[in-house]
Structures are given as structure tokens and as C-alpha cells.
Amino acid sequence: MEVIIGTYEEFLLGYKLLTNESSNFVQSFADKSHAGPLKCVAVHGHFVATGATDDRIFLYDMRSRKQTNVSLSLTSIIIYCSHLLCLADYFVT
Predict the structure, then answer these.
(1) Residue 6 and residue 12: Cα distance in Å, rounded?
(2) pLDDT tens digit sequence for 10-28
(3) Would you list the domain boundaries of the chain?
(4) Residue 14: left if φ>0, alpha if ψ -120 to 50, beta else—which one?
């Protein structure tokens, strides 16, 4: 299991749960792509999408642990349960 969190310090962090005798969390990745506090994180399959106060959405492929796309012209972000909905003109790869 892996826990994905966004911070007000502009970081996206991942922690893996090690299922041994003590069940510890170990940091699995860290990324600082946003220029403002992260406000939302959505996960679907191996993709993670993040939205922040910098009005951009980043899409990460967790298989490679790399950013794959970014939306530079964000109009709005709506979070509903496990869905990240956004209105944007295009994604830049």
C-alpha cells in the first residue's frame, strides 16, 4: 500500500507501508513541481493528478514515478469523492 499526500509547502509525497513486524512507512518519492500549495490529489490506477493554487494540474505516472503531463491554462478544479474534474484548454507533454 502507498499513501500519496500533497502539502502546503508545494510538495507531492509518497510513502509505502512496509508490512513487517513494526509496519513502518518509508518515503517512496517526493516532487516539487507546483508553485503554490497543493489543494487536491486524485488517484486512478497508476496515475496521480494534482491541483494547486498556481492554477495548474500535473499528471504523474506512478510506474515510472515521473510527471507525464501538465495543464497550463486551468479554468477550474472540482473535487468530488475520488474524482478530479477540471476545465482546461490542453495538456502539455
Answers:
(1) 5
(2) 899 989 888 877 778 889 8
(3) 2-88
(4) beta
- Cell (9 digits) for 31: 516532487
CATH code of the domain occupying 2-88: 2.40.10
Q: Which amino acid is at 56?
A: R
- What single-letter amino acid sits at 13? L
**Amino acid (1-letter code) at residue 41:** V
Q: Is 10 within 8 Å of 32 (Cβ atoms)?
A: yes
Q: Quick check: pTM over 0.85? A: no
User: Are the beta carbons of 46 and 62 closer than 8 angstroms?
Assistant: yes
Give the integer Cα–Cα distance in Å for 2 and 39: 19
Walk across the sheet containing 24-31 and list its strands: 2-6, 12-18, 24-31
